[in-house]
Amino acid sequence: MNTPGKPDTPLLDVSDLAVQFRVPGRGGIFYRDSTDVKAVNGVSFSMARGETLGLVGESGCGKSTTGRAVLQLLRPTGGRVVFDDEPIHEFWKKKGQKWVWDHRLLDLRRRMQMIFQDPFASLNPRMTVETILSEPLRNFDVVQGAEQREKIQHLLMTVGMDPRCMRRYPHEFSGGQRQRIGIARALALGPDFIVADEPISALDVSIQAQIMNLLSELRENLGLTLLFIAHDLAAIRHVSDRIAVMYLGQIVELADAQTIVDRPQHPYTQALLSAVPIPDPTQEQSRRRTVLSGEMPSPIHPPSGCPFHTRCPLSEERCRSDVPRMRTIETGHQVACHLVE
Question: What confidence tens digit (pLDDT) does each residue in 275-311 have?
């Protein structure tokens, strides 16, 4: 793994990150229009070296888009992304009508990797495991020949796979095994930072705990910094040092994992936690549940004021007109809500 920079500075610093998509209108010869969709709208957070930050929220809230924008797989339309003191959001150049990576971003690419949500779709079905894992090693000219094969065998053993399976194809494995192969590919170049984009959502419940335990072990053994994206707060709290709760393209609460679980302040965070079942039947029956009405608004036409006010059971008049700013209510605990004093 690469030697980190200054140990006292964050490995990743994201401020006011924004990603917009142009959605075409109804079209036609006489009527054309388009809309800018704010998929990510002013997201800010930082990550210390070796930390795991959980990013949680409903489907469509912008979690995966945030992860891809942090890695510069999507070009941000606003804000800053600083990785190890390098402003990587500036490592783009316009070529004709397209934006392309600058060579400086390519140089840093091996230090930033991603684990994708669907372990079958993210693996080429025409490639063997050996070919899949050797591809990043060849692209960055890390090792060749016999050393390359030894490296691949070591990667497979690191993720709990039998090295003898390297001649097999992705369809010959279970979902959990395919995800382990995807994790091995992300580790191939010895990265410092990994974005795990809902790595357990496509797996059976019995396998999810194994993959989460594997990621926790890898983080401890390799000193990885991990951005863990999920919609399941029950799962994410077990692997994260801190948790950021996201709603409609914005972070509405950010704190360490235990604080989020014990003292959630934002009504949306409270609703997410109330949906997590408790193993004790007595406590489960007696606790108060928060049931949200309706669905998350479309980012094409977001509500005015607080983005959550259309579903919030506690909303007031000011929630409909004034956008709440992110405030620190105690050390390390930030909330964007008018009702939290």
Answer: 776 666 666 565 667 777 778 888 888 899 999 999 9
Q: What is the pLDDT of residues 133-161, one digit of tens each?
A: 999 999 988 888 899 999 999 999 999 99
Cα gap 81→46, rounded to integer Å: 10
Rounded Cα gap, residues 282 and 278, in angstroms: 9
Sign of CA dihedral 290, 292, 296, 297: negative
| One-letter amino acid of 62 | G
Q: Residue 201: name the closest of 58, 332, 319 by CA.
A: 58
Left if phi > 0, otherwise alpha if psi is -120 to 50, otherwise beta: which for 16? left
> What is the reported pTM?
0.91
Q: What is the DSSP string of 174-230?
A: -HHHHHHHHHHHHHTT--SEEEEESTTTTS-HHHHHHHHHHHHHHHHHHT-EEEEEE
